[in-house]
Design a protein that fits this description.
By secondary structure, the protein is an alpha/beta fold. 32% of the residues lie in helices and 26% in strands. The chain contains seven helices and ten strands. The protein has helices spanning 52-59, 82-91, 108-122, 139-149, 165-177, 195-212, 223-226; strands at 6-17, 26-37, 41-45, 67-72, 75-76, 93-97, 183-187, 215-219, 231-236, 239-245. A hairpin with a 2-residue loop joins strand 4 and strand 5 (75-76). Helix 3 (108-122) runs antiparallel to helix 4 (139-149), helix 3 packs parallel to helix 5 (165-177) and helix 5 packs parallel to helix 6 (195-212). Mean pLDDT is 89; it is low at 122-135 and 244-249.
């Protein structure tokens, strides 16, 4: 049996915010440690203010911890400079947020291809490893294939204003996957959707996790979505509640 490969490892990650007054620093994350294997799916749940989004932003290099290590594919990304961090974000990590952040003036296909432009600009400036789109599949072909996979082939020439909320979020998922990231991070991806659209998107994320082999971490208040993941962790007051549950059927 093949031994699982650890893709992400957090070691004693702490995040504090200091105030200009004499108030004590606010500790948002308090000694978080975590390991996630390549291809796994994980949901992080917890009440508002528990540190879920802060943790996801630190994993995704959008923020830095006050202390601790964030190892992605064996490299401590919290210690990289801004240019190196930008390369990691464009090549190794995909993001899906509650707001889709699609460019209103661009078509669906153009929106999906935007991350490939940043990747092309930075490819000669770093020797860091990346998951390259295979030479046998161009970025446009991959975009078209994935849009077809999520049922949006007829909408590729449409603009975001012509799509439903669920369709816009599916475009955002495809955009996040276009550069074949190792890690897909989703922050409340179903928060702005109706129940039916949320169910469809949750199922789609699970299926793409398997089909694309991408490691998936979802932060969510929606327990129905969380229970689709292979593992669920609860965050409370900046720490993980010890219980873990294997819940996907």
């Amino acid at each position: 049996m093949e031994v699982p490969t650890t893709l992400l490892k957090l070691a004693n990650v702490t995040k504090r915010y200091t105030s200009s007054s004499n108030a004590a620093p606010l500790t948002v994350l308090d000694g978080i440690s975590l390991e996630v294997n390549a291809g796994d799916s994980l949901a992080i749940v917890g009440p508002s203010g528990s540190g879920k989004s802060t943790l996801l932003h630190i994993i995704g290099t959008l923020d830095r911890p006050t202390s601790g290590e964030v190892l992605l594919a064996g490299k401590d990304v919290s210690k990289l400079n801004e240019e190196q961090t930008a390369v990691v974000r464009s090549r190794q990590i995909g993001f899906v947020f509650q707001a889709h952040f699609l460019l209103p003036q661009c078509t669906v296909l153009e929106n999906v291809l935007v991350p490939t432009l940043a990747k092309t600009e930075g490819r000669n400036r770093s020797s860091m490893p990346s998951n390259q789109v295979p030479s046998s599949e161009t970025a446009e072909h991959r975009a078209s294939r994935l849009l077809g996979r999520v049922g949006l082939s007829p909408r590729m020439s449409h603009r975001p204003g012509e799509l439903s909320g669920g369709e816009r979020q599916r475009v955002a998922v495809v955009r996040a996957l276009i550069n074949q990231p190792q890690l897909l991070l989703a922050d409340e991806p179903t928060g702005a959707l109706d129940h039916g659209s949320a169910q469809q998107l949750g199922q789609l994320l699970v299926e793409l996790n398997r089909e694309e082999g991408v490691t998936l971490i979802v932060v969510t208040h929606a327990l129905e979505l969380a229970h689709r993941m292979a593992r669920v962790l609860q965050l409370k007051d900046g720490r993980f509640v010890p219980q873990q549950s294997e819940v996907r059927t």
